[in-house]
Structure formats: structure tokens, C-alpha cells
Amino acid sequence: MKTFAFAAASLAAGLVACAAPAASAATKTAVFAGGCFWSVEKFFEATPGVVKAVSGYSGGTTANPTYENHKGHLEAVKVTYDPAKVSYAKLVETFYRNIDPTDPSGQMCDKGPSYRTAIFVSNGMERAVAEAEKAKVEKLLGAKVTVATRNAAPFYNAEAYHQDFAKKNPAHYERYRIGCGRDRTLKVVWGGR
User: Fold this and answer.
1) Burial of 65 by CB count in 10 Å (0-12 exposed, 13-18 middle, 19+ buried)?
2) Which of 51, 66, 92, 115 could make an S-S bridge to 80, C-beta 3.0–4.6 Å?
3) Does the pLDDT at position 44 exceed 60?
């Protein structure tokens, strides 16, 4: 009887162990660069279907970049999402509606190479979705969109003090957001569209 009970317990533990990867396998990731990663992380974390958003660096050649040394990388956010609750196309649309897609130099008050905008795509479907949204936005705004569609690249998490910055430092983030003119710029770009 002990052997049967042990076998049953082992089988149950195995089923639980098998179920755990299946749950995490249901999520997907996408990487977006939209200027300061604090703001991009904040709007994606508020998007239904997004499990988490992590600030980091992507697109450069240096391994293990840091905030002080990320030349060649873009400030980016890796979004983990549940495709049963939000589509990749909806994430791309959300991304566009929360940036100025016509600014080739960066976003709002953050200018320079590391603040340029990009969507990092992992496959042909993601590329098609990103390019279709870009064409739609160009037509809607009547302006050239400068968001690059780039092949997926290694993503490096930013330092812990950058993660969830808007949640952990709400007053500091609000001063930054207001001082940077983020809301004002988005209202000018997107208006009632």
C-alpha cells in the first residue's frame, strides 16, 4: 500500500510540475522602445492582458549594458502578455497611441540615440502587424512615422531602481512626466483620434 501511495503522490507531483510550465507557456513576450522606459513600462502595465513589463536595454552590441554604459542600445521594455486576453496587434496599437511616432530624435524631453523608438519583432507575423500599424498611423496623422521595425535582439534588464519606477516613486515620476510635457505632447499628436 505504501508503494501505491508513494506512486500516486509522485504522479500528482509530476502533474502539478507539468501544469506549471503550461501556464507560463501560455504567455508571450514583445519588446518596444518608446523613449524613457519608465513611461513605456507604466502604460503597458496598465494594459489589460499584460502580465508584466520590464525596463531594460536592447538593440546594441554590448553585452550586459548598464544605465551608465548602454551606448548603441535603446531604452526598451519587455512586455509579457497573455494572448488569450490581448493580441499582439493591440499591444502595437497601444504602443503607438502612447508615443509621438513622428519624432526621429527621441520622445518628449528625452532626446538622443538611446531614446529613439522601435518595435523589435520576432517573426514574420509580428513584422507584418508592426508595419501595418505604422502605415495606418502615417495615414491617420498625415505624417512620416519614424518608429523602426527591427529584428529581435537580446534584451537586458535595467537596474532594479528603474523597475516599476512610476509605482515606487510616484511623486518623482509625476514631476518628470509633467516637466517633460508628455501629456501635452500626446494630446497635440493624437488629439481626438
Assistant:
1) buried
2) 51
3) yes
- Domain assignment present for residue 18? The answer is no
State the DSSP string of 139-184: HHHTS----EEEE---EEEPPGGGTTHHHHSHHHHHHHHHHHTHHH
Structure pTM? 0.86
Domain that holds residue 183: 26-190
pLDDT tens-digit map of 136-182: 999 999 999 999 999 999 999 999 999 999 999 999 999 999 999 99
Amino acid making up residue 64: N
For the chain, what is the radius of gyration of the CA atoms? Answer: 20
| Strands, E assignment, 90-133 | 106-107, 110-111, 117-121
- Any catalytic annotation for residue 18? no
Exactly one of 18, 36, 109, 180 is catalytic; which is it?
Answer: 36
Total domain count, the chain: 1
CA dihedral for 13, 16, 17, 18, sign (positive or negative): positive
Find all residues with CB under 8 Å of 51, minimum gap 6, and list them: 27, 80, 81, 82
Inside any domain, residue 3: no
